Amino acid sequence: MNKVKELPGEAIVAAAQAPSIKNSFLAYAQRVRGGDMGALPAVLGLLVLCAVFAIARPSFLTAINFANLFTQGAAITVIAMGLVFVLLLGEIDLSAGYASGVCAAVLAVTLINTGLPWYVCMLAAILTGVVIGTVLGTLVAKVGIPSFVVTLAAFLAFQGLVLVLVREGTNISIRDDIVNAIANRNLPPWLGWALYALCVAIYAAVQLRRARSRTKRGLVADPLSLIAFRVGMLALFAGLAVAALNLERSRNPALVSLTGVPIVVPVILVLLVFWTLVLRRTGFGRHLYAVGGNTEAARRAGIPVDRIKISAFVICSSMAAVGGIVAASRASSVDPNTGGSSVLLYAVGAAVIGGTSLFGGKGRVLDAVLGGAVVAVIENGMGLMGYGASVKYLVTGSVLLLAAGVDALARKRAAAAGLR
Amino acid sequence: MNKVKELPGEAIVAAAQAPSIKNSFLAYAQRVRGGDMGALPAVLGLLVLCAVFAIARPSFLTAINFANLFTQGAAITVIAMGLVFVLLLGEIDLSAGYASGVCAAVLAVTLINTGLPWYVCMLAAILTGVVIGTVLGTLVAKVGIPSFVVTLAAFLAFQGLVLVLVREGTNISIRDDIVNAIANRNLPPWLGWALYALCVAIYAAVQLRRARSRTKRGLVADPLSLIAFRVGMLALFAGLAVAALNLERSRNPALVSLTGVPIVVPVILVLLVFWTLVLRRTGFGRHLYAVGGNTEAARRAGIPVDRIKISAFVICSSMAAVGGIVAASRASSVDPNTGGSSVLLYAVGAAVIGGTSLFGGKGRVLDAVLGGAVVAVIENGMGLMGYGASVKYLVTGSVLLLAAGVDALARKRAAAAGLR
Amino acid sequence: GDSGQTTSTSTSSATEAAKAGKVGVILPDSKSSARWETADRKYLEEAFKAAGVQYDIQNAQNDKTAFQTIADQMITNGATVLMIVNLDSGTGKTVIDKAKSQGVATIDYDRLTLGGGAAYYVSFDNTKVGTLQGEGLSKCLTDKKADKPIVAYLNGSPTDNNATLFKAGYDGVLKPKFDGGEYVKGPEQSVPEWDNTQAGTLFEQMLTEQPKIAGVLAANDGLGNAAITVLKKNKLNGKVPVTGQDATVQGLQNILSGDQCMTVYKAVKKEADAAAKLAVALAKGEKPTASSSVKDPESGQDVPAELMEPQAIYFDNVKDVVADGYVTKEELCTGDFAAKCTEAGIS
Amino acid sequence: MTPLLEVRGIDKSFGPVKVLHNVEFAAYPGEVTALVGDNGAGKSTLVKCIGGIYPIDGGQILFDGKEVHVHSPRDAGELGIEIVYQDLALCDNLDIVQNMFLGRERKHGILLDEDSMEELAEKTLSGLSVRTVKSIRQQVSSLSGGQRQTVAIAKAVLWNSKVVILDEPTAALGVAQTAQVLELVRRLADTGLAVVLISHNMNDVFAVSDRIAALYLGRMAAQVKTSDLTHAQVVELITSGRSGELGLKNGVTP
Amino acid sequence: MTPLLEVRGIDKSFGPVKVLHNVEFAAYPGEVTALVGDNGAGKSTLVKCIGGIYPIDGGQILFDGKEVHVHSPRDAGELGIEIVYQDLALCDNLDIVQNMFLGRERKHGILLDEDSMEELAEKTLSGLSVRTVKSIRQQVSSLSGGQRQTVAIAKAVLWNSKVVILDEPTAALGVAQTAQVLELVRRLADTGLAVVLISHNMNDVFAVSDRIAALYLGRMAAQVKTSDLTHAQVVELITSGRSGELGLKNGVTP
Ligand SMILES: Nc1ncnc2c1ncn2[C@@H]1O[C@H](COP(=O)(O)OP(=O)(O)OP(=O)(O)O)[C@@H](O)[C@H]1O
Ligand SMILES: Nc1ncnc2c1ncn2[C@@H]1O[C@H](COP(=O)(O)OP(=O)(O)OP(=O)(O)O)[C@@H](O)[C@H]1O
Ligand SMILES: [Mg+2]
Ligand SMILES: [Mg+2]
C-alpha cells in the first residue's frame, strides 16, 4: 500500500526510483524517522514490556508461559477485533462485553437443554450476536440515538439477559469436549508445522502474484529481493514460535504430555486475515473507512451510510459472540459474570493501544491483536509477580501507562515533523 | 445568547424585528419547529419517564420520594458536571468514578486518623482531585497518550489506591455530623424560602441589567415583558419545588419532623451556576469550546491548548472529588466500591443523555444536571417497582433507551431540516 | 499493607523448603468483603511462614479470566499445591482439572467447587451463616415485640453463589414464619456486586414504597450499614433491627450503638489455620486426613472436609470477637464507642 | 430544446431563515450554464438541493422533462448528476486513488482491483496538469489547496454522467490548471453533457458559458444567453438583482 | 530599507518529501508583497512555517532585522504577525463574533464583554460589504464559502499587527467583496504594515502589489518589483521557474 508513484515533478522519494532491497530499507528508515511508523510503536511497547517481565521473573520466558499467553488473551483480542469496526466509524459499543456473555449463555443453554450438536449451538450463539448487532445498529443509524447511550442501555439490559439465561445466577458447566477444546487443547505438533508451511506458502504466492501483476501494468512493484526478505522473516519468526509451542511443557511429562500450538492460535489467525482482507480489499471495508473519516463526504459519494453503520455493529456483536464462545470454552462454564467486569474496558483499551482512534477513520484489525497482546502480557506478567490486590492494581495501571507512553512518545516525534 | 442581529439583507427573522413577548414566542416556536430545541428534548424525555413511573407507582409522586430523588442523583450529577469539561474537548475520563472513590477515601481517612476539622479534610480530598487531574491532564496534553488509555490506567491504579487507603477492603464509617449532613439533612424551611427569594431576585436583576446595557449600546435586547415572563416562570416552578420540599414527609410526624430542601440542592445549584458562568462568560470557557470544536483553529488563534486540556482534567477530577464527598456523606461511609461499578458509566451517560457530544465542542453543564436527573429518576423509579435483579436490568436498559429515544427523534427532525 | 513480596522463603529451613514444594493461593476479590485481604491473607502467610513453606497468594479481583490466568501462572511458577476460593464452579473446575493433570494437589478454600473433585474442602457452612442471620433477626424482632413485622431483604450480589447460599439459610428460618402469617414478607432486592452505595438507594426506595418495614435482613455488614444510614435519615435507626455478617469494625460499632441487631462472626483464623495445615502437609508430600467430609451434590462424591462453625454476635458477645483478636479494642472503641465498649464488657 | 435538468419554484429555509425563494433554473445538454451571484446568494444551497443533500421545502426537480425526487446523493448519482461541491468533501484519511473511486470502486470479484484504479486515476490526474503531486497513494490530508480541488474535479469527471455541476471549481487553482479545467468544462459540454459552472470570475464565465443565470438574495434574477449580455450587465445583476429590463421587479421574480 | 519580515534559507520536509528548498523571502513595511506560484509550489507551507504551525528544518526567520524563533502560532501573534490561512481554521461550533475575537476576547474584569465585541465585529464586517449574513450570532458552520472567508479576513485585520499575511483571501469572494478586500490590503500597507498577499489571480496581483515573489517547486525563483515585470513574465516564472534573465538556473537558486 505504501508504494510511491512518481509523477513528473522534482521532489525526490529515494526508494521509489530504483526499488531494490537496499533502497526499500532506506525508504523505510526514512519513513520511520519522518514519523510514519505503522505498527512499530505498539511492537516497541510490547518488547519493552516483555523485557521488563522477563528480567523480573525468568519463568516469563518458559514455553508453558508462552503458550498460556495465547489462551489468556484470546477472548479479549477477538472482542477487540470486532470493536475495531465500530470504533472505525467513531462509534462505541459498551455492550460488547455483556453481548459476549449473552451469546456464551445461549451456547451453554442450548448445549445443556437441547442436546443439539456443538456446531448448531455455536451457530445459535453467533446468530444471537448478529441479532444484537442489528438491533443496536438500527437504533444508532436509523433512530439516531448516540451509540454511547444505546450501548449503555444494552450494557444494562444484557446483564439482565445473562441472568435470565443462566437462571438467576447459577453457573452452567459446559461438558462438550469440542467446545472446551477451543481454548484448552493444542494442535498435534505435525499439524502445527503443516499449517505453518501452508501460511508461508500462501503469503509468498500472494506477494509474488501481486508484484507480477503490477509490473505487467507498468506500476511500481516490490523487487523480488524484498519479497524474498519478507517471506524469509515471516518463515523465521513463525517457525520459531511454532517450534517453541511444540516443546514439551508439561510439568510432569510422565503423567501427561503437553505440546503443540494452542487451537486458539489458528482461530485468531484466520479471523485476523479474514477481517484484514475485508477492511483492506473489499468495497465494504473502503466504505467503512470513508464513513469514519468523513461521513458527509461518504454520503455524497453515494455510500449507504446507515447500512454501513448497521453492518459494523453486526460485525462487532458477532465477534463478541465468538469471543464469548472462546471465553466459555476457556472457563468450561458460563455464569452471569461472563463478559462482565473489565472485559469491555480491556477490549476497547486493546484496540486503542494498538493505534485505533476513538474518533473514527483510523485503525486496523492488527491493532486489536497487538493491543490484545499488550493486555495479555500485562495480565500474564502481573500474575507471575504475585503482588497483593492493591499493589497489583497500582502496578498494572503503571505498566499500561508505560507501554502506551513508549508508543505515544514515538508517535509524538511524527507529529512534530508535521505529519499527523 | 440567541439574540438575532439583523444586518442589511432580506431574509427575515420574525422575532428580532420587533422584540415583544408575542414575537419572542413566535420566534421560539419557529426555532423549535426548525430544530433548534436546546434543552427541550431532554426535558421531554424526563417528563415521559416521570409520567410512566407515576402511573406505575403512585408513591413516586410523594414528597418524600421527590426529596429522595435529589440526594440519590447528587453524586452522579456532580461527577457528570466535571466530565462535561473533559468531554467538551473530545477527551474522556474513565477514572472519574474511582477518582471520586480515592478522594472520598482521603476524606474518610483524614477524618478518622488525624482528627482535623471537617473543612480541612474536605480540602484535602479536593486537593487530591486537583493533583489527580494535573497528572492525568499532563499525560494527555504533554506526553500525548490518548486519554482513553491514560484514564484506563488510572482507573486500574485508583482501584488499588482506594484499597490501600481503606486498608485492603474495610468499610470506614464517617462519624462527622457536618460531613454526613451534606447528603442526609435538610435546610430549615425558612432558609429554603430565603434562598429561593435571593435566587429569583438575582436572576431578575441580571436579566434587567443585561437588557439595559444592550439597549444603551443600540444592540437588540429582550423586551421587558419577556424578562418578566421568564422571571415569573422561574419564580413559579422553583416556588412549587420549594413548597413541595417543605411539606412534612416524616412517616411519624409525631416522633420526628422531616421537612425542608435537602442541603445537596443548593450545593448543586451553586456548582451549576458557577460552572455555567465559567463556560459561557469567561475566556477560559470560550477557549474550551474552541479547542473542542477545532483544536487546530484554536492553536492558530494563539490559545494555549495544552494548558486548557490540563485545566479541563483538573476541573473534572476536582468535581469527582466533590462527588466523592457527596457519596461518602450519603453512605456515611467509604468502602472500596465507592465510585466503582456503574458510577462512571452513569456519569458519562448523564452528560451524553443531556446532549453533550463525545466528539467535543458541544455541551453544557446543565446537560449534566438534566441527564443526571434522567439517571436518578430511572434508578428511583426502578427501586419502587421492586423487580428482581434480572428483570430490573432489562427494564432499566429499556427505560434508558426510551428516554434517549424521545430525545433522538426530536433532534432528528432538526437534522432533517438541514440544521446539524 | 506490605503485601509487596509474598513469595518469600523461610530463613530457618531453606533447604527443607526447597524440597517441600510451593503453595499457591487464589483469593476471590477484595471488595465483597474485607476479610480476604485483611484476614485470610495475613493468617495464611503467618501459617506458611511458620511452616517454612514457599507460598504465593494472589487475588482474582472478582474476575474469572484473571482467576484462570493466575492459576496458570502459579503452575508455571512451580506451585505443587493450589488452594482456591472459586469465583464460580465452572472456572474452579477448569482450574482444578488443569492442576490435577499437572500433578498439582488442590484444596477448595471457603467455597466448594461443585463437580470439581478437589482433594480437600475447608470452609464455614454458608447456609449456616444464613440460618444464623434468620434466627438473629427473629430474636431481635421478638425483643422489639413486633407484631406481624414487615421484613425486607437486602440480598448479596445476584451473581455470587455464596449469596444464594446465605439466602437459602435465612429463607429456611423466615419462610415458615411468612407462610404462617407471623411475619409479612416485604420488598426484596439483590445488590449488584455487594455495592454499598447502590444498596443505600435500593433500601431508600423500598422504604418509600413500603414505609412500614420493621426488620431488615441485610446479607453483610456493609449492606446493613447502608440500610442503617437510610434509617438514620428517617430517624428510624435502632427501631428497625438490621442484620449483618463478617463482624467488621463498622458492624460491631453499629451493634454497640444499637443500630444493628446482630452480625455473624466467622473465625477466619481457624479456617485459615486448618487450610494452611492441610496445604503444608500436601506440600511436604504427606497425605493428611480430614476430620469430616461433604457430599458434592453434583458429582455425588464425598470430599474430605474441615468445616468451621460460624457464630452469631449480639451486643452481649461482641467481646468474644475482640477476645479472639479478630478486631482490636483500639479500632473498635474509638471516640463515643469507648463508653459502649465498657458497657459491653470489652476490656 | 428541453432542458436536461430543470428546477421549478424551489423554496428552501434553514430554520427561520429563508434562503431560496421560488427559484427557477434550467441546464441544457451540450451547453455550459454559468450560475453566478453574490456571496451568500444561495448558489451552493441550490446545488445541494439538486444533489439531494438538503431536502427542499417546495418546488419540483425535473430530469429530462420528468419530475424526480432526489432524497439523497445516491439518488442524484443514479440519475447521472455529478457534483463538485464547494466544500470539497474528501475523506482525509484516504489516499487520492481511494477518494477518486469512492463509492464506485472497481472490483475483481468481491475484492478491489487496486491496480486498475491506480492506473486510471493517474491518467485522469495528469490530464489536469497536476505536476506537483508526489504520489497518488498520498493521503489527501497532505495535499495543497489546489491539489485537493483538482482531485475533487477529477473524481467527478471520471464517470459517465449526464449532468456535471461544478461549484467554484477553479477558486484555488493556478493559472495553468484553471485553463485546463475550463477547457475540460467546454469539452464535457461539447460531448453532449449539461454542465453547470458556478464562478465569481467573470472572465471565466464569459470564456466558456453559453447561458448565464444570476441569483440575487435567493431569487433568480435572470437566465439569459451569454451572447446577449455584457460584463457590466452581469455584475449589475449580481450586485443589485436587476439591470435595465432584466432582473427582479421590486425585489420579486417578474 | 530593512525588511520587517525576512526568511533566509528555509528548508522544510514532510517525511521523505522535501517541500521547501533554501527559500529566501522578505516583506517590507508599507508594501504589499505578492507571493505567487503554481499549485503545490509550497506557498502555504512557507506561510505556515512563518506562522509557527510547522517547525522548520533549517534556515532563519528574522523580524525587524533580528533573528526570532517561532515555535507556535502564539509566538507569531506576539511578534505582531497575523495570518489568514488558506484552510480557514474557524471553529464551526462558535458563532461569528466568538470566532473573530478568539484568543483575544475583550473582558470586563474576568467576565467576557460580549456586547462590545458584538458591536465591534458588526462594524468590521459591514466594512467588508458582507450583506447577506443574517446574524452575527450565527454559527460559522452555517455560512457560505465566501462568508467564511470574509470572517477569517475580518478576524485578522481586527488587530493592530505589523505583518499581515493573506493566503488566497479572495478565492471564494464575489466581485464586490474582492474589490473591498483588495482595497483593504492597499490601505493596510499604506498605514505602514508589511502585507503579504498570496493569489493565483494576476490581475489582483498587479493591481495591489509592490513586489512579486515567485515560488517554483519549493524554490524561490525571483523576488522583483512589480513595476519591473509584465503579466507574461510572471506567468512564465510560475510555470517554468524562469523567464529570460530572471529565475532559477538549472533548477537551483542563482
Ligand atoms: N445550514 C445552514 N443553516 C443556516 N443558514 C445557512 C446554512 N447554509 C447556508 N446558509 C445561509 O444561506 C445563505 C446562502 O448560502 P450559500 O452557501 O448557498 O451561498 P453561495 O451563493 O454559495 O455563496 P458563496 O459564493 O459565498 O459560496 C447564506 O446566507 C448562508 O449563511
Ligand atoms: N502535511 C503534509 N505532508 C506531506 N506533504 C505535504 C503536506 N503538506 C503539504 N504537502 C505537500 O507540499 C507541497 C506544497 O504544498 P502547499 O500547500 O504549500 O502548496 P501551495 O503552494 O500552497 O499550493 P496551492 O496554490 O494549491 O495552495 C504539495 O505538494 C503538498 O502535497
Ligand atoms: Mg457557495
Ligand atoms: Mg496553498
From TrEMBL, chains A, B:
Membrane spanning residue stretches: 38-57, 69-89, 96-116, 122-141, 148-167, 187-206, 227-247, 259-279, 310-331, 343-361
InterPro entries (UniProt xref): ABC_transp_permease
UniProt keyword Transport, yes or no: yes
Keywords: Cell inner membrane, Cell membrane, Membrane, Sugar transport, Transmembrane, Transmembrane helix, Transport
Bilayer topology annotation: Multi-pass membrane protein
Source superkingdom: Bacteria
Pfam family name, one: BPD_transp_2
CDD domains named among the record's database cross-references: TM_PBP1_transp_AraH_like
Annotated compartments: Cell membrane
Function text: Part of the binding-protein-dependent transport system for D-xylose. Probably responsible for the translocation of the substrate across the membrane.
Name of the protein in its database record: Xylose transport system permease protein XylH
From TrEMBL, chains D, E:
Record-annotated ABC transporter domain positions: 5-242
Source domain of life: Bacteria
GO function term, MF aspect, one: ATP binding
InterPro entries: AAA+_ATPase, ABC_carbohydrate_import_ATPase, ABC_transporter-like_ATP-bd, P-loop_NTPase
Keyword terms: ATP-binding, Nucleotide-binding
UniProt xrefs under PANTHER family: CARBOHYDRATE TRANSPORT ATP-BINDING PROTEIN MG119-RELATED, SUGAR ABC TRANSPORTER ATP-BINDING PROTEIN
Name of the protein: ATP-binding cassette domain-containing protein
